[in-house]
Amino acid sequence: MLSKLLRFSKRQLHTIIVSREIIKPSSPTLSHFKTYNLSLLDQISLNSHTPVVAFYPNLDQTSHDKTKTLELKNSLAKTLTQYYPFAGRVAKTDPTYVDCNDEGVTFIEATNDISLSDFLQRSKHEDLDPLFPDDLIWFDPHIRGDTEGVTCPLAVQVTRFACGGVALASTLSHKVGDGRTILNFINHWAAVTTKKDINPQLQLLVKKMLSKLLRFSRRQLHTIVSREIIKPSSPTPSQLKTYNLSLLDQISINAHQPLIAFYPNLDQTSHDNTKTLELKNSLAKTLTQYYPFAGRVAKTDPTYVDCNDEGVTFIEATNDISLSDFLQRSEHEDLDPLFPDGLIWFDPYIRGDTEGVTCPLAVQVTRFACGGVAVASTLFHKVGDGRTTFNFVNHWAEVTAKKDINPHFLHYPTRSTNLPSVHSARSRVGCVTRSFLFPNRKLNELRAKVTAMTVESGQPVMDPTRVEALSWLLHSRAMAAATKKSSGTFKGSDMVFPVDIRGMLVEKLAPTSIGNLFLAIECRVTSESGLEPHITIGEMRKMKAAFRSIPNLEGVMDIFGQMSLETALEALKRRDESYIYSSMCWFPTYDIDFGWGKPVKVTVGGTMKNATGLMAARGGDGIEATMCLEKEEMKILQNDPELLAFC
Fold first, then answer.
1. Where does the pLDDT of residue 426 fall: very low under 50, low under 70, confident under 90, or very high at 90 and above?
2. Which of 249, 453, 486, 534 is 20 to 30 A from 363 via CA?
């Protein structure tokens, strides 16, 4: 019992707090790093602090008092400039982010009047407790926080022992980092104190962490400024109040198509005062001709649009980084917050009001720091296809720039189908989207290669187009990546090519026709030999020739009207597991001029597994392929020399 009392008295009486100070980063944290979002792994981790202590013998106590403590404080301040979230504040219960406000970390100095050697020889593990700052040791159901319920992620205590010797203890909130994180931090702090460079591996780790923080913080620093409903400037005539969906519309995917255009160097004040109002007014005028887009449609199995002029959502937002930084450093997933209400591709629960209806169209305008604007729109696929989306945005831009527009609506008789609409099982989970640029010079080399391969096979394909050759290359390399991931096991998967039929039928449709006016070419690929270019490109050409023999749009509707339910279900199931290659190369991509000049970049948003969009590069030099695959397959593809040879 006396032994326990002695140990207890040591903890209570022999460790004395000498000073308490707040150490802040030596340089202020940049504005775009002010929010550090916690990952899901962070958020579900223990609500505790991880304690680590290191003991150093034979330090001269007087020297340490005068010099070492000051060195530790200065080096800690320098280290915190790179570990800036540790100097911020985090909610003590259920935090989702760290406010990187540079308020600093607690630095405590203490003394213990026994020698370090005696302490290490005679103490029990519990005797370490007083060496840690503020008892922040592992589980603490009542983590200390200030009056606003926040706490500092990091705290430090330096304890000097009699006759020389020092203990340096630190505790890190487990919500911010794990054991490896705190050891990395202490090693980095030590390296700064001894004026060494960061360990190269640690430096790389910190660089990667900062890169991820920049991307994630950008998403959170994206701020919604206003939300408004824009209605057509003139009411829709009573005879146009119902817009019937065609059979092609009804069986199309239950999704929104995201399109975004970026415009540089707009004066931000001018945009706030004038441009936004111009966009709203021109949108209202445009909707008088695109009146179904301002109506309401059932979110499941719709057969018509109620053209009631209830209007479209118009969102204004800001992003506090520059447009040039965003375009240079962002990944495809960083586009998501730029689209209104998360309406990006597949959404099995498309937002609707209490009556189960949704607006076909939504718009968001985002202003970037230092000038620059993104105009994003999403159109319900039941109302129109990709060409329709491009036509609408181009016409909206033309109205803004005081030009005429000429949308062409096709009016269908009331007609429903027993064919199922597509509620796709394609998942975004575990997928990434990346872009590849193929310049014309390389595409010409690819076309020559394809021609040579098909001649050698005895079934020559003469003068393959850029899209035909590139689609074959992308699919063959994507399948190679999937095979490599599966340890050499080939799994067949179809290729699907949506084809715009506006200019393909015998009775041609106007290029500005609105609706789902595409047919899909399907190429069955059951073996590796099926990937040969003469097979895939030959099938594409065969089906296109068949489409050109269809007399008119009614002939297209008849094909689907006669299709059995079993045949349709089988086709939809295959298509859901297929690779899709959609060409938008002939769409008016870079003609979207709102009076600000042509955009610097136009792309589709979101991720859709095994889907690829082909779009003409800015300036016309090549094709940009935006491709979505599973992460592991994409990593293989990005290092595929056969693909990169043509980038």
1. low
2. 249
Q: 361 has which bridge partners? A: 379
Retrieve residue 565's tokens. Answer: 């339910």
Share of the chain above pLDDT 90, in %: 32
What is the Cα–Cα distance from 289 to 282, expressed in whole angstroms?
12
Under DSSP, the state recorded for 174 is T
Copy the structure tokens of residue 162. Answer: 């009699």
Residues near 588 by Cβ (< 8 Å), separated by ≥ 6? Answer: 390, 391, 394
Residue 120 exposure: Cα atoms within 13 Å on the Cβ side: 13
- 3-state class (DSSP) for residue 202: helix
Question: Edge-to-edge strands of the sheet including 97-99?
Answer: 35-37, 97-99, 89-91, 150-151
Model pTM above 0.90: no
State how far the Cα of 219 lies from the Cα of 213, in Å rounded to an integer.
10
Give the Cα separation of 226 and 8 in Å (integer): 61
Give the span between the Cα atoms of 312 and 256, in whole angstroms.
14
Which of 582, 594, 512 lies closest to 262, judged by CA?
594
Rounded alpha-carbon distances, angstroms, from residue 10 to 19, 124, 129, 138, 208: 19, 11, 11, 22, 44
Q: How many CB atoms lie within 10 A of CB 142?
A: 8
Centre a 10 Å sphere on the Cβ of residue 289 and count the other Cβ atoms it contains: 18
Query: How far is it, in rounded angstroms, from Cα 522 to Cα 104?
Result: 61
On the CB side of 73, CA atoms within 13 Å amount to 18
Work out the number of other CB atoms within 10 angstroms of the CB of residue 401: 13
590-626: burial string, b at 16+ Cβ within 10 Å, e else: bebbbebeebbbbbbbbbbbbbbbbbbbbeeebbbbb
The answer to whether the Cα torsion of 589, 590, 591, 594 is positive or negative is: positive
Of 286, 402, 389, 392, which Cα lies nearest the Cα of 343? 389
> Is pLDDT at 210 greater than 50 in this prediction?
no
Closest CA to 471 of 587, 332, 625: 625
Q: Per-residue pLDDT tens for 38-60?
A: 775 677 667 778 788 888 876 55
- Does residue 309 contact residue 358 with C-beta atoms inside 8 Å? no
Question: What's the start-to-end Cα distance of the chain, in Å?
Answer: 78
pLDDT above 90: residue 438: yes
Measured N-to-C along each axis, helices 179-193 and 200-220 cross at an angle, to the nearest 10 degrees, of: 120
Given a contact cutoff of 8 angstroms between Cβ atoms, the answer to whether 368 and 321 are in contact is yes
Q: Closest by alpha carbon to 490, among 479, 504, 502?
A: 479
Q: Looking at residue 275, what DSSP letter applies?
A: I
DSSP state of 10: I
DSSP symbol at 253: B
How many other CB atoms are found less than 10 A from the CB of residue 139?
10
381 is annotated as an active-site residue: yes
State both tokens at 360.
């076909």
Two tokens, residue 389: 């989306």
Helix, strand, coil proportions of the chain in percent (round to 5)? 40, 25, 35
Select the more confidently predicted residue: 263 or 182. Answer: 263
Distance CA 433, CA 580 (A): 14
Cβ neighbours, 10 Å, residue 95: 21
- Catalytic site residue from 49, 381, 475, 534: 381
**At 316, which amino acid appears?**
E
Question: Which residues 6+ apart lie within 8 Å of 202 measured at CB?
Answer: 184, 187, 188
Alpha-carbon torsion angle 310, 403, 339, 308, nearest 10? 10
Chain-centroid distance of CA 43 in Å reads 20
* Amino acid letter, residue 325: D
Is 96:40 a contact under the CB 8 Å cutoff? no
From the list 306, 558, 593, 640, the catalytic residue is: 593
